[in-house]
Amino acid sequence: MAHFAEPNVPGFAVDVYQNVNLPEGGREVNAIVTVTSTGADTDTGAVVPGPRVPDAAVVLMVDCSGSMDYPPAKMRSAREATAAAIDALRDGVAFAVVGGTHQAREVYPAGGRLATADDITRNQAKEALRKLSPGGGTAIGTWLRLADRLLSSSDAAIRHGILLTDGRNEHEEPDALRASLDACAGRFTCDARGVGTDWEVKEVTGIASALLGSADIVADPAGLAEDFTRMMETVMGKEVADVSLRLWTPQGAEVVFVKQVAPTMEELTDRRQESGPRSGDYPTGAWGDESRDYHVCVRVPSAHVGQEMLAARVSLVLPTPDGSSPRVLAQGLIRAVWTDDLEASTAISPQVAHYTGQAELALAIQQGLDLRKAGDVDGATAKLGRAVQLASRSGHADTAKLLAKVVDVVDAANGTVRLKAKVSEEAEMTLETRSTKTVRVKK
Questions:
Q1: Phi, then psi, of 253 in degrees rounded to 5
Q2: Is the model's pLDDT at 53 over the cut of 70?
Q3: What are the residues whose beta carbons fall under 8 Å from the beta carbon of 342, sequence distance 6 or more?
Q4: DSSP designation for 40
Q5: The whole model's pTM is what?
Q6: What SS3 class is residue 414?
């Protein structure tokens, strides 16, 4: 198994894990690309010690629809959680609060502008939160468009939204929400949270996916404050925005797919933006001190034994303020070598094998839950049984625990399960929402 790394700018690194060997006539090359950021100053390339004030703007979108009044503790918890997130803002960060119903309104600071975080504005914002009361419907697209207008008034590098909802997007057509997401994609990132169990999982996860953020369930409103604080602290740790994964392929080669596979599964293939001859960029959003894994598959021309070629060059690029050629933060190489050694050419890279199994696990859970909702007991049992087997093999203990709340596990190793007669909405929604979370491969 080969591991390649190119010289990188301090702060970012690209490592490539793959089996470079192909049999004669073999064409498909798979690699896991690990990108690691250690918080570099992107102007000088120097690693910055200690916490910095991020060049950031944040909009908090709080569901204020009528359903937030049932039970009354839900709205109270939402106010407290938003206040906790505001307390986590560092001085100097631009921010605003939006109240969302069937229309969006500015709660703080109003006037189509953002406030600058300090002791005074944080207290003013928290005072404004106390006036929030539930009433009206739900049209999330309007919330996102208002957040976009507010964030666009700032020249901050990090532009981020945090969205909380407790219900389904019933007061606008699905196409309207999709149009809003298309309009906002690439302009800001957004974390989405569903509180309680009356919201639609695919809506909330779809928002987070389109805007390169995280999605989760907070079934008990009492847990909102802790979750919001953690989200905001993560945003405050971001230092580099609008980073893209660039793939260059030689003549005759083509990209089959690009997927983020850790810490969550995210399909990026259709988000490609052409960036030059045989070159395309895939968005990755903003980075702090973190590491992510990507699965890249490239189809190359067939060749004879003994031949070798560069299948793809992977670069991490950052736009420049003046619009000139983007800055290359790090690079790695994906190679192909044709051999008649059967053992070498048929071996699968442990990293590729691990994430292929993780992708199958996520798909099996989604399909199993959909079949269960459709009343197909046999189909659901088969898919969720396969999920249990894959979770057991990969050591994905968290997913195994969630699956055990939906099925009775008879034999995890063989995937033998029985559907539970009664499953709580919380258990089912938590499993569906977190099905794309992965465990890292042990390198």
A1: -100, 155
A2: no
A3: 23
A4: B
A5: 0.92
A6: coil
Nearest Cα residue to 213 out of 187, 248, 245: 187
In terms of Cβ atoms closer than 10 Å to its own Cβ (0-12, 13-18, 19+), residue 239 is buried
Q: Is the pLDDT of residue 380 over 70?
A: yes
Which pLDDT band, with edges at 50, 70 and 90, does 2 fall under?
Answer: low
Whether residue 68 is predicted with pLDDT greater than 60 in this model: the reply is yes
The SS3 assignment for 208 reads: helix
Instruction: Let me know: does 169 contact 140? Beta carbons within 8 Å.
Output: yes
Q: What is the mean pLDDT of the chain?
A: 93
Which backbone phi and psi does 409 adopt, to 5 degrees?
-85, 115
Measured at the CA of 181, the angle between CA 175 and CA 185, to 5 degrees, comes to 150
8 A C-beta contact, residue 62 and residue 100: yes
- Check residue 441 and give its pLDDT: 76
User: Once rounded to an integer, what is the mean pLDDT over residues 189-218?
Assistant: 96
Start-to-end Cα distance in the chain: 11
Q: What's at 197, amino acid-wise?
A: T
Q: Is 240 helix (H, G, I), strand (E, B) or coil?
A: strand
To the nearest 10°, report the CA torsion of 141, 144, 149, 153.
Answer: -170
E strands in 115-239: 115-116, 158-165, 189-195, 215-218
In this structure, the number of other CB atoms found within 10 A of the CB of residue 339 comes to: 18
Average pLDDT for residues 311-324, to the nearest whole number? Answer: 90
- Contact (Cβ atoms closer than 8 angstroms) between residue 264 and residue 437: yes
